[in-house]
Amino acid sequence: MKQRIADLAGEMISGAFPDAQGLPEDLASLLEVPPDPAMGDYAFPCFKLSKALRMGPPMIAKKLSESVQRPEIARVECVGGYLNFFFNRENFAREMLSAIMKAPEKWGSSEDGKGKTACVEYSSINIAKRFHLGHLSTTVIGNSLKRIYDFQGWKTVSINHLGDWGTQFGKMICAYKRWGDKETVEAGGVDEMTRLYVRFGVEAKQNPALEDEARAWFKKIEDGDEEALEIFHWFKDVTLRDAMKVYDTLDVHFDSYAGESFYNDKMGRIIDELNEKGLLKDSDGAKIVDLEEYGMPPCLILKSDGATLYATRDLAAAVYRKETYHFDTSLYVVAYQQDLHFKQIFKVLELMGYDWAKDQCKHVAFGMVSYEGTAMATRAGHVVLLDELLSRAQEKALAIINEKSPNLQNKEEVARQVGVGAVVYATLQNNRIKDIDFWWDRALNFDGETGPYVQYTFARCCSVLRKAPAITAAPAYSALTDDEAQALLRLLSRFPEAVAEACLRNEPSMVTRATTEIAKAYNKYYYEHRILDEDESAAAARLLLTDAARNVIKTGLYLIGLSAPERM
Ligand code: ARG
Q1: Where are the domains of the chain?
Q2: Domain 2-87 and domain 386-559 have a common topology
Q3: Closest C-alpha to 313, from 165, 517, 150
Q4: Which ligand 1 atom is nearest residue 317's CA?
Q5: What spatial distance separates the first Cα and last Cα of the chain, rounded to whole Å?
Q6: Is the alpha carbon torsion for 32, 485, 467, 519 positive or negative?
């Protein structure tokens, strides 16, 4: 509809000013949505035409308004320099519902990304460390972005850049060999590994020789020693086995688990290139790329003992992804604390002559999560583990469901969907850069702006449709001209723009918001109108509206990573 109004505005302009030159080309981008629907469905501001037409904006608006006559437009009004368009309500309802119901699951999808590839890196957990709340945002934001990009026609590659490299693995193997055993690690998983690691720290204070032993083990991993590698890979498997449970619960998937260690044999070439291009500098025996000119501290490439660093691996990873996937965009969903790191990486790539880094590599940063008012403490015992959080969410959701719908059939499954949905929604509710304070009461409130509320609205739509008798009468769109139906239709019509915008800005919260607004508008409609009207044609139209809302809410939920239970 937006494009149609823009085209119409274009025709009006060439009608009223046939000889005008130098007018803005993209009229659709000028169109605004008035803050109050009483001011119209779209407003066309005439300010940017003023220069080309040598006329004040109010005069332009006035002249344009004289020429409008279209079945889809009921009227236009000139207010200041704006031309406000009012849709023909019946026509709008007919057009919108026909458009949506032609392919209801696809409403909001596009071919914008056709032929293009997006690498989306997210979650990127650390091996042998607990999967805690600190990795919730990256996991759910990344998952949502992957879904949004897919829906916009991109080919996506989802990557879990595992933190599986570092001298700590030498320490852990040393501790395992001394004090651990296979069964305990198998049974205890990451917790047992953490215990071993902590014990290493304590014992090494007494006995510094252990540090040498740990270094020797790490060197063995680097040199490909069979035993060392076997233990190292086993630690990885055990960690991932636990993580997989969380990923399954969240319905999150990856195409690649190529983590830091994957780049062990891919950094030599990067270091050579840096050398050849004269970018590598000596600094107390270490090798760095000086970034002072760009107002940044140096990027560390090699330690004085020749060891590579986090940044070295990221340089190799960026180049590898480009050469393997030929991406058009490469996203890094990582906390804002690593802002400087990514600025440095992208700059170094650019200096190396990889021009794509500048426009195609993007750090998708997000804020911190705190839990019921306390910031995430890293000291053992204070971290909130993700699997515990998700199980708690399911328990709490189950308690609420037991109270609200004691007779529901598959309560456990619905509790899972609602509990997880509450957590995910709370994470994707606001702009990603904002810090999040997670509170149970808020996240699980069925009446607030929450996951359960939107899911409940979806279930309500399903229930209305389930209970409706079979109707053969054709829908009477004249039954959908009231303010509430129109408000809902307007939001449904703009849903595709919200998805496109979310993709453009890597901002899933725009989909959360659009979906929540639709749910609110449907509920308002539901409370103020009888859907199953005596008049069959009116009922048919209202059911169609319900079905459209149901489909679009389901899509919105899917795009932010929530399930849509049909009964709640
Ligand atoms: N594993 C790191 C962490 O947990 C995040 C990795 C981010 N991605 C990257 N390509 N550097 O903090």
Answers
A1: 2-87, 118-364, 386-559
A2: no
A3: 165
A4: 10
A5: 34
A6: positive
Task: Give tens-digit pLDDT for 182-224.
Answer: 999 999 999 999 999 999 999 999 999 999 999 999 999 988 9
- Residues 107 and 547: their CA atoms lie apart, in Å, by 12
The predicted model gives 363-370 an average pLDDT of: 94
- What is the enclosing helix (H) or strand (E) of 185? helix 182-188
Strand order in the sheet with 299-302: 280-283, 286-289, 299-302
CB 433 within 8 A of CB 427: no
List Cα–Cα distances, 387 to 249, 318, 444, 511, in angstroms: 9, 31, 17, 26
Tokens of 91: 């026509």
Q: What is the pLDDT of residue 372?
A: 84
Using CA atoms, how far apart are residues 185 and 203, in angstroms rounded to an integer? 19
Q: Cβ(137) to ligand 1 under 6 A?
A: no
Please check whether residue 489 is in contact with residue 549, taking contact to mean a CB–CB distance below 8 angstroms: no
Which of 133, 261, 338 to mutate for ligand 1's pocket (most ligand atoms within 8 Å of CB)?
338
Tally Cβ neighbours within 10 Å of residue 466. 9
Q: Give the Cβ contact number of residue 128 at 10 Å.
A: 22
CA separation for the pair 144, 161 (Å, rounded): 17
Q: What is the dihedral of CA 259, 185, 251, 505, to 10 degrees?
A: -40
Instruction: State in Å: Cα 250 to ligand 1 middle.
Output: 20
The mean pLDDT value for 140-149 works out to 98
Instruction: Assign a CATH topology to domain 118-364.
Output: Rossmann fold (3.40.50)
Any atom of ligand 1 within 6 Å of the Cβ of 131: no
Give the Cα separation of 162 and 237 in Å (integer). Answer: 12
How big is the CA angle at 232 (ends 121 and 216), to the nearest 5 degrees?
A: 120
Pick the CATH number of 2-87 from 3.30.70.1150, 3.30.470.10, 3.30.1360.70, 3.40.50.11240: 3.30.1360.70
Assess contact for 63 and 56: CB atoms under 8 A: no
CB 122 within 8 A of CB 84: no
Q: Which of 179, 230, 236 is nearest to 204 (CA)?
A: 179
Return d(Cα 131, Cα 133) in angstroms, integer: 7
pTM of the model: 0.94
> Distance of CA 44 to CAs 26, 73, 334, Å?
12, 14, 39
Longest dimension (CA), the chain: 90
Matching residue, tokens 């449904």: 492
Q: Does CATH place domain 386-559 in 3.10.120.10?
A: no
404 CA to centre of ligand 1 in angstroms: 42
Phi, psi of 72 (to 5 degrees): -80, -10
The rounded distance, in Å, linking the Cα atoms of 543 and 71 is 25
Q: What would the DSSP string read from start to end of 201-219?
A: HHHHHH-THHHHHHHHHHH
Nearest to 247 by CA among 353, 162, 139: 139
